[in-house]
Amino acid sequence: MKQTTKRKLIYSAIFAALLVTEILIGKYAHGFVRAYIGDVLVMPTMYFFVRIFTEKFPRTLPLILFIFACAVEVSQYFELYKVLGFAPGSLPAILIGTGFAWEDILAYAVGSLLNAVAAVCFKPARTA
């Protein structure tokens, strides 16, 4: 099996495990776990999803994803879901989010640090 195929399988497995964890947190968890651990884990979930498809930007990807997460959070501050005409509780509103919180940005920063560690641990294979 080629090294890149093996890596993609590893990234896919990690992504799947994180996604299932996120879904379970969203469905069953309360308090600290739901409020913070879910937001921390969303960053590695996105990181490994992107890494399935590309080996580009392994060292800058954590920063790119952090900026993306902050942009989504800022859109919640400005209630983008209302601007776009989505009803509260609708799937698009849930995906975009409806509530801004500084704590979420801090959780994304912690998750981005985990991504930086992953970028070092899962270096792309060198080509000869």
UniProtKB/TrEMBL annotation:
Q: Which organism is it from?
A: Ruminococcus albus
Q: What residue intervals traverse the membrane?
A: 9-29, 35-53, 60-78, 105-122
Q: Which domain of life is it from?
A: Bacteria
List the protein's name. DUF2809 domain-containing protein
Q: What is the lineage of its organism?
A: Bacteria, Bacillati, Bacillota, Clostridia, Eubacteriales
Instruction: Give the matching Pfam families.
Output: DUF2809
Q: State the UniProt keywords alphabetically.
A: Membrane, Transmembrane, Transmembrane helix
